[in-house]
Amino acid sequence: MAPPLTRRTLLQSAILAAAVPGAGAAAAPAASAATLPPPASWTLRPFPLKDVALGPGIFAAKRQLMLDHARGYDVNRLLQVFRANAGLSTLGAVAPGGWEGLDGEANGNLRGHYTGHFLTMLSQAHASTGDQAFTDRIRTMVGALTEVREALRHDPAVLSVPGRFGTAVEHVRGSYRYVDLPSAALGGAGAVTLAAWVKPTHDGNWARVFDFGDDTTRYLYLAARNASGVPRFAITTTGAGGEQGLNGTAALPLDRWSHLAVTIADGTGTLYVNGTDVARNTGMSLTPAALGTLAHHWLGRSHYASDPVFAGAFGGFDVWSRALGADEIAGLQSARGTGDLVSYAFDETSGSVFADASGRGLTATLRRTWGGPSHPGFLAAYPETQFIQLESMTGGDYTKVWAPYYTAHKILRGLLDAYLATDDDRALDLASGMGDWMYSRLSKLPAATLQRMWGIFSSGEFGGIVEAICDLHAIGGKPEHLALARLFDLDKLIDACAANTDILDGLHANQHIPIFTGYLRLYDATGEERYLTAARNFWDMVVPHRMYGIGGTSTAEFWRARDVIAGTISETTAETCCAYNMLKLSRTLFFHEQDPAYMDYYERALYNQVLGSKQDTADAEKPLVTYFIGLTPGHVRDYTPKQGTTCCEGTGMESATKYQDSVYFKAADGGSLYVNLYSPSALTWSEKGVTVTQTTGFPSEQGTTLTVQGRTSAFALRLRVPAWATAGFRVTVNGRRVDGTPMPGSYFTVARTWRDGDVVRVAMPFRLRVEKALDDPSLQTLFHGPVNLVARHPSTTYLEFGLYRNAALSGDLLPSLAPVSGKPLHFTLDGTEFAPFFEGTEDPTHAYVRRAEPRVVFGNSDSGVANPAKADGTTLLDEVWAGAPFASKGALVTRVRTVVDAWVAAGLLARADGEKVVSTARGATFVP
Questions:
Q1: Which residue in 5, 14, 1 sits closest to 591, CA to CA?
Q2: Are the C-beta atoms of 860 and 805 separated by less than 8 Å?
Q3: In the Cβ-directed half-sphere of 434, how many Cα atoms lie within 13 Å?
Q4: Which end of the chain is more exposed for a tag (fewer CB within 10 A), N or C?
């Protein structure tokens, strides 16, 4: 943050701080923009990525796996779907598949989203490491996307490839291109030969070589494959039921040239494949003349909207006004023929028209099935049709329209991040163009239409697009972009949450979480309190009321009733995207209001679900990130979910390159430094001229050391005291204890003038504790400090464990477990190993266990008395240990006596049994 600063740099800085948090780096990238304070409404400011270096530890190890993936994956595969949509050469790249492929879920209706995620990952990786390789990849992708948009702005142009004779024209799958012939192409012929050289590249059934007709009633067509996978010719004047047809006998080979010809004369139709007669119909009474004047004459396109567009190459198309003989058809295999009705060689290498060599001058035109973009700023990996169809939809159907504005958000976000990482103006121009295009579409729609659209499940999902558009507005200052952001207001959601009315039951979780981060940014831009109030109340509806112990939320992607946790545990709990977006929301809320609960949640979700969602394995092809994390007994995490390139793999790539985005914040006035997370890292605080190096093995180490170096500087060091730090939080500076009483769930302030070499030592002993499911207190999850511990066991039913048997006077349950030598944070209990959730293994795990304390035991001494329980499930031991910590054994025994007497008086415990309980406590030996 070194002055002087230009307006451009100021704007870059604000957006980077607001929207591109990420892992720090040991070396500052040369191309990164400087960072400056984000919105004035933020009372805290994040540090830019280049100012926070990630030290050795679990975060660095996981990040390295993702950085290797970012370096190794072929970005041309991501660009394939964009280039195909624009009709450009795909350079032989194979689309990633899964959600990014036409054969993936919902026919690839979300394709393009993953490219945006990848750009964000590369941008964060660049900021984290300064590695030029990431910069180069970003610029390659931005350059390609610039070419894509330019191609979409114009009529489709010929993509020339080698043909059977000379050159040919290729229709890349996903380009939705076809050739439009003039209406006189058939010439009203009573006899005819239609012949084509084709090289199919995809085996889609019913893709047309040609289809001449009015609609689905009067037509003649030749399909490269019918439902049986063989070529079919048909002609009809009464629709499919009246077709007179010819079927081939074998499938056409893919990626090889084949010659197809059909002749009709004197009531006989013949189909030839590669010069051989493969089908004959002597009852073919219909001819082109019988069809009359037809409206459309298409190569590669069907009159049936559900049929695929032909994918492959055309090496020639000819029509004769007579039926060629078999010898003549055979002769076409070795030399071009010239039809007397139309003849197209497709030897053009540019432009969008094809010359007719028949002498009739019937020039053909290359077209897109969807026409073209409504605005020059349009950029996508598929046609604009999904955006158009959404405007008239009344219910969700992702097989037709799958969250087009969600995908637009990912692309827009990736471009903004790319711009801020590399200062490449092309990326900003692309992003600004997208904003202009969206405004041109949405600003024309009635408010009621917008409200309906945004309320539709899945199809109307728009992710974090409001945040991205607000950031775009912060950079460019276009008032249309701020107006665009407000067009995504979902009033019924905002109003309900602003009124603190919980309407989340039945809503799709990840469709709604990122909306509120965007609304916070709208609050920043407009000052409208309802946005801030709604976001704050929404967060409180999720945490803790719909939160699992690991910090995740949702079951089968949806929310259920408030406070139902055990009742929603399934194989499809805790969608990983939800944790990613809850972290963003918590972080942004904290910039406005320094409620420690936001950072307590941040630590919980980051150290558990987010870390645990990344497998601890290298893979160049896959990021190896979970989609769901099932919390059922014996669940094995799936790090290659669904068909791949999913939303959660996308956000997982981002998470793994910004692990430390919230380790440090600074006050807006520069008077305080917030240490939110305990993680090995080094902060460069340029304005103060100091560095703060955090050295720790946390969470294996129960504390941290911060060393201040550089200029003498006065500021308040605000250290987060985690809500779980009930065993103490001790702070020393240069070996001397700092006065004060740190309270769990707060920030402890050390205000002083710092000098070079000052050392702050923080000790925060961990305790083993349990968290109970809100709707079933006997179902519990274990935590050691911030670390969720899971039992590794193949059983698919809940394991039962007791934890009071050797509980310490402090209330710490850890003495009941045995540490595993040489494996930090691993313990055993009754022969079962407990391990940190964050370890990305494929072991069957139990995140929740059934608590069972059948007998009253103190210090491993069994009283022989059954542990009684009240109607609400609270046991005698629960009530005893609720009084922990105990200053001494005597204090514990006093507590036991008090509880026993109360239970005896209530008729819940026999007096004799009560005396046994007291005697056992008195005779037991306790860990302090």
A1: 14
A2: yes
A3: 29
A4: C
Per-residue model confidence (pLDDT) at position 21: 31
Long-range Cβ contacts of 857-862 (<8 Å, 24+ apart) = 857/802, 857/804, 857/805, 857/920, 858/804, 858/896, 858/920, 858/921, 858/924, 858/926, 859/806, 859/924, 859/925, 859/926, 859/927, 860/805, 860/806, 860/924, 861/920, 861/923, 861/924, 862/920
Which residue in 878, 888, 880 sits closest to 925, CA to CA?
Answer: 888
171-226 pLDDT, tens digit per residue, is: 999 999 999 999 999 999 999 999 999 999 999 999 999 999 999 999 999 999 99
Per residue in 639-659, pLDDT (tens digit) is 999 989 999 999 999 999 999
Q: Which residues pair with 773 in a beta bridge?
A: 776
429 phi, psi to nearest 5 deg? -65, -40
Q: What six digits make up the tokens of 68?
A: 């290797």
Give dist(CA 701, CA 720) in Å, integer.
16
Judging by DSSP bridges, how do beta strands 849-851 and 776-784 pair with one another?
Answer: antiparallel
Q: Is the peptide bond before 544 cis (omega within 30 degrees of 0)?
A: yes
In the structure encoding, which two tokens stand for residue 395, read together?
């219910």
Rounded CA separation 83/115 (Å): 12
d(CA 620, CA 617): 10
Peptide bond into 885 cis (omega under 30): yes
Phi, psi of 724 (to 5 degrees): -85, -5
Give, in order, the Cα–Cα distances in Å from 908 to each of 870, 913, 922.
8, 11, 21
Q: Which two tokens stand for residue 481?
A: 């972009």
Per DSSP, 475 falls in state H
**How many whole angstroms separate alpha carbon 297 and alpha carbon 192?**
15
Are the C-beta atoms of 583 and 610 separated by less than 8 Å? yes
Cβ neighbours of 797 (radius 10 Å): 10
The per-residue pLDDT of the chain, averaged, comes to: 95
